[in-house]
Amino acid sequence: MKKILTLIFLSFFCLNAINAEVTWKLSDGTLTISGTGDMDNYTTKNKAPWLDDRDRVNTLIIEEGVTSIGDYAFDNCYHLTSVTIPNSVISIGIRAFRYCYDLTSISIGNSVTSIGNYAFYGCYGLTSVTIPNSVTNIGRSTFYECSGLTFVNMGNSVTSIEREAFSGCSGLKSVNITDLESWCKISFEEGSANPLFYAEHMYLNGKEVVNLVIPNGITEIGGLAFYGCKGLTSITIPNSVTSIGNSAFHGCSALTSVTIPNSVTSIGNSAFCGCKGLTSITIPNSVTSIGSSAFNSCYRLTSITIPNSVTSIESSTFSGCSGLTSVTIPNSVTSIGGYAFSGCSDLTSITIPNSVMEIGDYTFENCDDLTSITIPNSVTSIGNSAFYGCYGLTSITIPNSVTNIGRSAFYGCSGLTFVNMGNSVTGIGKETFEYCSGLTSITIPNSVTSIGNSAFYGCSALTSISIGNSVTSIGKRAFSDCLALTSITCEATTPPNCDKDCFDNIEKSIPVYVPVNTVAKYKAVYGWNRFTNIIDNQSIADAVIAKINAIGNVEYTDVCKGKIDDASMAYDALTDAQKALVTNLDILTTAKQTYDILKAAAEKLAADKAAADPVIAKITAIGNVEYTDACKSKIDDASTAYDALTDDQKALVTNLDVLTTARQTYETLKAAAEKLAADKSKANDVIAKINAIGNVEYTDACKGKIDDASTAYEALTSDQKALVTNLDVLTTAKQTYDALKAVAEKLAADKAEADAVVAKIAAIGKVKYTDACKKKIDNASKAYDALTDDQKALVTNLDVLTTARQTYDDLKAAAEKLAADKAAADAVIAKITAIGNVEYTDACKGKIDDASNAYDALTDDQKSLVTNLEVLTTARQTYNTLKAADDELMAYKAAFENYKSELRAIIEALGKEDDSDAVRDIINKAISDIDALEYDVTISLDDNKAKVLSFVNSVDEAVENQRAEDQKASGIEELELAEKVNIYDLSGKKITRSMLKSGLYIRNGKKVLIK
């Protein structure tokens, strides 16, 4: 019975070995890889064996046990549409699924830790991919040119993404990040294309990330970490972050504001480049470096404050920030890189601190609205095209520290009208001020030795030029097309070399002023010799000498002032060399001083008179003197104004006697008025006391007011009493009080009687259904009835007495009803108590039904008085539970008896074989024993069945053992069906294998038993 041979027939199929442990088969387009261990790695020359039939492969099944997918394993299986990778695989090899064009989806098992280079290269049918948490590395070009890929679910264990991993994934719109903290720690190989470069939206655990909160504990936001997240509108960076990597938020166009915490020390190159929605950002003092192009093209950014910790502004940092209107650069910055503020077209002003030594090339190029800029003394050089196209710039001062001005530095600054050039500049480069069409004059300092080509070309408003004494050369077209030019001054004693077209399109008859005794030299030099009016500086100085001599005697008149100003302006317009030739400068200086003295004296006299005249007016304004505040104010005002004058000014006041008389008159009027005021004050006090009486009442307070007013009146003098205007009010008040007093005394007597009744009513208190309460109510009623009508009217709590009577009657009726209800309820309580212990008996059922019927017959009020209702409810539930349990037990016993019958039949079947008497005895005893088994209520039905089954198995074991003993005694051998021998039945007939069944047979002359 226990040893049964099972014959298995296997159908034939094509099975091929890859190596000793891994095999493959291809059937009906399905390629199955089976076995245990790693697959082999292949190359373009040593191809996988199934690749010859790759056009037939459309489904790939890799079974559990295979631990790796080899290099080039399924390369160019272009009809492959579905792949199942089991959890046993830990790595996917190089180019494993390259050019599997029809592959639309793939399930990568959770055990895979690395995906090799080019693994899914060119799988443009792939639409989505989930990279499990087990993957730590994504190799180079893994999903290169997977143009159909629209979604990537990124596991939280990826620590590195190599270059071009997702390059060419033009359809990628979103990347799902399962763990933001892990994502921030990913490092991207230099030159790699971060998958988010193409993703317009980012998802965290399946939800689109709009407001990004980076977890606390992250210390670095890696380069390209959130590149191109167009749906991101806000970010929260924790205090644990110390650096923001290159292009970390590049292209996050919906981002509007960013607060960088104090923990951050560096902001990488292009970190926020292209964040065109960004309107504000706070950079803390902890930041020491801001990378190039960090805020490039953030054109909605309106203001920025750079902290004191930053030492340099790198190239293109704020380039293209066209909405930027103001920038604060701290003293810590020493250099401003090229293109740093290029294209900041709304920038109106900027202050460069004294710490900056260099302004780079194109730094403020095309800052259209820039109207002013201060260049500090620390700057030594201004780069090429530094202020190119700043046509809003109106003036510029180049400090003495600057030695070099780069090419085209102020090219096209058409609004520039004034340039103050420091005396350290040694050269003016090519096109430096070209097309500065608003510039009216220019002075080139003595430090300059050369002027480059087209330096002032097209400065069409330029009227005068002053060239320093060190200039030796002037380049091509340096002053060409300066059409408004009216004069040129050149201080060089040796005429500078002029290149071709140096002064093209300039009127050649304008005066050219040159040093003394150099006219002939200039007329002999190319370029200068084209001018027809070259003038020696001495003649200019002589004209100024004549203007000074014309001043004559100095007077404080407009005519004299005009002569002095004319001579001064003429002198100031001279060059230093020309000023040195003016021999009477002392006359001009003395004339200025004399005029100023005369002017001061005249202005002092006018000022003194101007101070005295208002005081005269104030004294005149006093008029007739009266004892009034207005008159007093005028007198005091005039006195204060007079006292404030200087002695010279007081001498000019012509009506001081009027002020003196006014003061005396006012004092006389004041004394008389004060005496009258004193009497009136005393009378007014009494008037006030009388008025304070008000409505007369029978109160101590009112009596006090009347007595107080009477006493105060009697204390007055006769003059003062005559001023009391309301004496009649006092007289009437006295009479009214006496009348009220009589009425009040009668009312007090009535109230005393009424108050006694009020007290009796109040003593009733809370009404109860008691004899004591009834007695209080009756007592208060009798007392009330004994009062007069006037006294009854003073009883303020009559309603309390009325309510008490009604309440007592209601309580009496309620008590009588409650007694009846309680009697009915008590009878039911007794029936419920009589139920006792609940049993599954008819007697107990009768008690429960009797109590239930009695309870149901009660009214709702009576039911509420039944205190043991829960006993009745519990009894009903307990009885029903006992009934259900008994029914279930009977069903279990019936099932148990059926099971015994089934197993009894099995035991009886054991004895139907041709066995010994000993075996039959075992079986007969077992039948008797199983009939005697009863259901054990302490265990479950299954456990009861298990006991019977265990008994049957023991019987089976005993029968087996007995048959083995019988076999040994009879010489019968056991024969297994699988043996290839000649077998005969007991009659000697040969038996074939198909005829075999359990029983005794003959083999080699011996009995054998086949089971």
Biggest pleated sheet: 9 strands, parallel
Which percent band covers the strand fraction?
15-25%
What would the average pLDDT be, to the nearest integer?
88
- Summing up helix and strand content along with how strands pair, one would put the structural category as alpha/beta
Folded structure, characterized:
The chain is α/β, with parallel strands linked by helices and 1011 residues long. Among the domains are: 385-531, Alpha-Beta Horseshoe (Leucine-rich repeat, LRR (right-handed beta-alpha superhelix)); 536-654, no CATH class; 892-970, no CATH class; 973-1010, no CATH class. It is built from 20 helices and 51 strands. The strands form twelve sheets. A nine-stranded parallel sheet has the order 28-30-32-34-36-38-40-42-44, with no helix packed on it. A seven-stranded parallel sheet has the order 4-6-8-10-12-14-16, with no helix packed on it. Strands 1-2-3-5-7-9 form a six-stranded mixed sheet, with no helix packed on it. The longest helix has 42 residues, at 869-910.
Brief descriptors of the model:
alpha/beta, disordered N terminus, nine-stranded parallel sheet, Leucine-rich repeat, LRR (right-handed beta-alpha superhelix), 1011 residues, seven-stranded parallel sheet, flat
